[in-house]
Automatic annotation (TrEMBL):
Entry keyword set: Cell outer membrane, Ion transport, Iron, Iron transport, Membrane, Receptor, Signal, TonB box, Transmembrane, Transmembrane beta strand, Transport
Any Gene Ontology biological process: siderophore transmembrane transport
Lineage: Bacteria, Pseudomonadati, Bacteroidota, Chitinophagia, Chitinophagales
Pfam family, one: Plug
Topological relation to the membrane, as annotated: Multi-pass membrane protein
Region (Disordered): 778-800
Localization, UniProt: Cell outer membrane
GO MF, any single term: siderophore uptake transmembrane transporter activity
Top-rank taxon: Bacteria
Annotated Secretin/TonB short N-terminal domain residues: 51-102
Any one GO CC term of the record: cell outer membrane
Signal peptide start and end residues: none
Name the record gives this protein: TonB-dependent receptor
The species this protein was found in: Chitinophaga lutea
Amino acid sequence: MSLARTLLLGLIIALIPMQVFAWNWRTKISLSLNNQPLSAACELIEKEYGIHFSYSRDVVSMTRRVSVNVKDMPLRRVLDLLFDDSNIQYKRIGDQLVLAFKHAGTRTINGFVEDALTGEKLIGATVYMPHLHTGTTTNQFGFFSLTTAKDTGTLNVSYIGYNAGAAQLKDKENRLVNIKLSPSNTLQEVEVTDNLPKLQEQTQMSKLNLAISQTKTMPRMLGEADVLRTIQAMPGVSGGADGSSGIHVRGGSPDQNLILLDGTPVYNATHAFGIFSVFNPDMVKNVELYKGAFPARYGGRLSSVVDISMKDGDMYEYHGEVSLGLLASKFMVEGPIDKGKTSFIVTARRTYADLILQDVAHKQFNLGEEGEFWLYFFDGNAKINHIFSPKDRIYLSAYGGKDHMTVDRNHRFDSINGMPKRYHEEMRFRLGWGNQAYALRWNHIFSPRLFSNTTLNYSQFYFNTDYRYKYMALDTPLVKESDNMNGRYFSKVQNAGGKIDFDYRPNPEHAVRFGLQATYNIFQPGILRFNNMSDDLQLIDTAYNDETSGGLELALYAEDDWKIGNSVHLNLGLHASSFIVPGRVYASLQPRMGFRFLLPQRWALKMSHTVMTQYLHLLTNSATYMPTDLWVAATDKVPPMHANQVALGLAKTTQSGMFEMSVEGYYKEMRNVIEYNELSNDFQSATPSWESNVVTGKGWSYGGELMLQKKKGDFRGWIGYTLAWADRQFPTVNQGKRFPYKYDRRHDVEVVLTQRLGKRWELSAQWQYSTGAPLSLPVGSYEQQDDPSPHTPGGTGGPNEIDIVGNRNMLRMQDVHRLDIGATHVKQRKKTRYTLNISLYNAYSQKNPFFYYYKRDDDGKRQLTMLSILPILPSVTYAIRF
C-alpha cells in the first residue's frame, strides 16, 4: 500500500506544474495614462500583457477617470492604484481578472428548486449569480444556500431537461427563494439526460449519477426496465450469473454494497431469482453510485454505495400510469392530498408466470387434481410528503415486496407398477423471501446557511423455505405403511435506526456536511428444523441455531467539499464508528479524501483515498443462486472487515457537453473477510455457533476502468471497459495460498447505444462481454473400497469414487456475452401518453453458463455439464400515462 500511495503522490506532484498560466501577481507592468477612463486602462493591460478582465457594465462602473505612470511595477500594485478609490474589488478566476463592487458584508440566498408542474424537488440543479461569478448546486432534497456579497442582480437556475429559470434580487438582505423550472420536453421519459456538472467540475471520482431516462430506454428483460441492470452496464460493475440483477463492484461481494432506498438500507435487492431488482423505475427519482471515494456521510460497507431517492408525488395534479406486459403488470398513481402542501405517490407490480404456466406445471410435476403451483413476485411503494412551513417538510415512505414459489402435489394412486395397491401421497415445497423498508424524514432550515434532515427508519429481509412429505398406504391389511416428515429453513435480519444530517454552506468555497446516527441490528442467521414422524423411525424434532443476536452501531461524521481557487477542489472527511456486541466493542476511524486538480485543456486529475469498515458479514452459499446466503454480525470471535482503497484518474466533459471521457485506476486491500473453511458445507451455519465454520483472511482487488460516452444528439450511448483482478487468501483454505475470488472478472466490456428516430421512436441495443467466473471442480478421482461390515452406515462392499479437488478456483467458466435490443414508441395525446416497448433479450440466443455439474452418461462415465437458463426472450409492454 505504501508503494502505491508513493507512486500516486509522485504522479500528482509531477503533473501539477502542467497548470501554468501566462501571468501572475508579480508580472511587471508598464502603464502610462492621463485622465483616461478605467475601461481604457483595462484594455491597454489586456492588449499588452494578455490579462483578460471580466465584469458586468450594469454592475461595475468603469467610467471614473484615472492618471497613472508606472514602469515595471508588479501587477497587484498597479491594480491597487487603479481601483482603490473606485470601490471596485478584483479576483482572479482561472485566466481572468473578475471585477465587482466592494460591499459592506454578505447576505445568503437559500431555498428550493422544483418542477413547476409537479412540485418535485430537483436534485443537482445549478444555481449561479453571473455578475458575481459564484454559484452552487442543490442537495438531495432540492435545497441550496449561496452566500454572496450584498448586491442586487439575477439568480440564474438551470437543470438539464428543463427550461432555465431566474430570480431577480432587488434587495441586499437574506432571502428564502423557491424557484420553479418548467420541463423543456414533453417526452422527457424518452430523452436521455443527466443533471450533473461537467466531469472535470466534480470533486468526487468513482461516482456515477444515473438518469432514470437511461433505464427506461435500455432494452428490457421480460418487458421490465431495471435500475440495477443499468448500473451493471457501467465500468467496474458486474452482475452475477446470466440474468441476475445483483451487482459486484470492483471485485467485492454482494454484502459489501450499501443500497439505500430513501436513506433506508435494503439487504436483498433482487426479485425472481435475480432477474429483476426491487426498484420500480416509476418510483425512482435519482440514483447515485459510488464505487470508491466515498464521502464521509456513508459508512458500513466496503465496495460501493447505491443511493436511490424516491419520487415525492405531484403536488398539483393527479396522474397515473398502467403498464401491461407478457409476464408482469404494474400501476402508478400520484397527486395532491392538499394541493400545494401534501402529495402522495403509490406504485405496485406483480408477475403472473404461475397463471400462464399452470397447465405445464401440473403435467411436469404430476401435481394431481388437487395440486397447486405458484410462482410470482409482487412489490409496492408508497410515499407521502407534507409541507408544514417554508422551513419544514416531512416525508413518509414505505416499500414491501415478496417472492413466492409453491409446488403442492396431492395424489391418490390405485396401482404401483401395475399391481393393485392404493396409497395417498402429499408433497409440498415452498420457497419465499421478501423485504420491507420504512422511512420517516423531516427537513428543517435552521438558518439560511444550515439545513438538516432527520431520519427514522426500519428495514428487514427474510428467507424461508419449508417442505412436507406424507405417504400412506390405504389397503395394506397387516402392516400400516406411512411416511410423515417436514422441515423448514428460515433466516432473517432486521435493523432500526435514527440519524440526523446537517448541510452547512458558510460560503461558496465550502460545503460542509456533518451528522450522527445509531442503528440496532437483529439477526436470526439460519434456523433449521426437521421432524420425522414415520412409523419405522423414532420421533425426531430437531432445531438448530434458534437464537437471536444483535449489535448496536454508532457513527458520526464530518466532511468539507472545499474549492481552493478555480483549479483545486478537495473533499476531506472523517467517519468514526463503533459496534457493540456481547463481550466486545469495536471502534474505527475512517479518513476520506478526494482531490481534483484542473489541468490544461480542461482535463481534471483526480485522486482519492478511502478507509472503510464493515460490521456485517454474508455467509455465501456457493451451491445455489437463490438468496439463501446468511447475514451475520461481527462477534467477539469474528472481527469486522476493513478496506483501504486508493484511486487515480483523469476525466473530461467537452465544452459543448457532447462527450465525456474518464479513465481510472484503483487498488484495494481488505482485512478480515470471511469464508467457510474447507471442511464446512454451506448449511452448517445452522449450528449453535457459526463462527466455528468460518475462517478470516485477506483480500485484494485492483484494475483500471475506461468510459467514453456521447450525451447529446439523436445518437447516444457509451462504451465501458474494465480490466480487473480480485483475490483472496485464508490460512486454512487452498493450503493457505492466494487464489482468484469468485467475483474475479479479468475483462468486461459494455456497449450501450440508443438512436432517436423522429419524435416517436427510439431504438436501443446493449452488448456485453465478460471473462468467465472462477470455478472449482474435481480434477481427478480414485476408487476406494468401503468397509462392508454391518456397523458402517451405507457400506455396500463395492467401490466408491473419491474426487480429487485441485487448487481453489483454478478453472473458469466459459466467457459470457449477450446482445439485447429494444424499440420504444411514444405517442402523446393532450394529457395522455401511450408507450409501446418491444425488446429482445439475448437476441442471438447465446448459451451462457448458470452453473456446472457432473452427470453420468449411458456408460456410467461422469461428464461435465453446463446449465444455461436464459435463451432468447422476447417481450412486449404497453403503458398508458394519464
